[in-house]
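Section 5.1 Outputs to date
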Amino acid sequence: MTIPKGAQPMTISPGSVRPALAVTAAASLAIGLAIASPTSAVAEKAPSAQRQCRSMTTPTYRVLNPETSATLLTTWKREKQRATGEYGFSRSQGDPFQVSRKAGADLVPVHRLYNPRTKDFLWTKSAREIGRATSSFGYRDAGVDFYAATSGGSCLTPVYRYVKNDVRRYAVGAGERAALSRAGWSYESIAFFAAEKPAVVSSTKASVKKSPAKKVAPARKQPVKPSTTKAAVAKTSAQSNEPLAQSPYLYKGTHAWKAYQAEKNPKDKRLLYQIASTPTSIWLGGTSGDGGLVDKITTEAAARHQTPQFVLYAIPYRDCGQYASGGLSSVAQYKKWVDAVNKGIGNRKAVVIVEPDAIGMSCLSTARQADRNAMLRYAMKTLSSGNTWAYIHAGSNNLDPKWAAAAIKKAGVGEARGFAVNVSSFDATANEIAYGKAVNKALGTKKHFVIDTSRNGLGRHSGSNGGAPAWCNPPGRALGSRPTSTTADPIVDAYLWIKRPGESDGTCHPGDPSGWFKSYAVGLTERALDHGTVRAVSMPK
């Protein structure tokens, strides 16, 4: 789209002294904004919803550019008219909520950000998000656009931010959210909370003749019958068998626990506790001390009648030298290490996930593939007993289930309890249940499996990830179901947090760390609480 002849570039905020920035056809936002989302409505109690609503009386116009799918929010009627007449924002979506142009009690400033390269706008009240967008992704902070609330209340409505193909939309209400989801848009965060638009009340009284109220006898209270639906009784067999009959063990040697203990900001501390207080897997990378660590953990867990979960992650030629390169150097060294881990477990209860992403690596030579399968079979057989359940990683539903079945069969799935899916990935639980069943169908068996739900609360990210692989710190994700052996299907032994939320997938984008990633951890938690994919856990006093 070109600017009409004689038209002036629309400023980023009417009447401001900021440089004029032309709004042309918005290119796709070619970045993955792996940044923290706004404050959770669950994590913060609204200071005074009614007072906030009385302060927010300015209608906010929402107009859409059909060509680019971009949305413009503005409190200025003149800006709306110019955007409609000169810049292609021709589809009006009304004025669905109200904000304030002035600072008020319990209101926070909402900034408008602009990217001159992509011609895209971004609204946020998060200082962390502003800093990351301007320092790493080419946005310019145009300053405060309006003022809004930080959390919900009786007269407040969350303004949800969705993304598709790097363009963002802003939705209010369940109907709009459902429509965007059906159209392939992914939930990203709550941008801010606004006042609900006042209902229009007709001044004409309807002449309706009132009928005398009939007395209705109170209904007799019926006894509640236990549900017999499939969903109500779909609990895993692990609930009546070992080792998942016990509660999971919380290991406090994680980055999340250390970050929670060191955090000084009260809000971030509450958010980090949601991850730190949830049992996650202990990843073993092939060091000489792993056997001793496993012995210490399983001994402590047994005393508490809890079950720890471990991940073996030391296969030689791991990831063929790519993002997750590393591992031990030989078959003999690997088997010796597996023996040490097995000795550390002893006859105590444990769950072991065997070598994520180890199956079917086409980069390996024929000889090395044979060695790989021999090592996996050895681990699966050695670590399987009545008290220890081993699961080989079988990928996730972006793989062909027939291919995955053939690969895990060679890797020794028949020697152990079953397989694990979605490890370190983001796919929705329902999709992974279907995938696991398809793998079983291809195997011709009914092997049990576990699902990594640590970061799958909002499913996979759609659209560009800023040039990084889709699995590498994608934006807008959320925590998924906390670990439990109560699942939607009896073939699923448990939902587990196998990947430790908040630990980076790698240096995927400029500024991404290789270890603990606080802003990503906070974003995962905020979106999970906003979206209800987890319930808030109270911190100890």
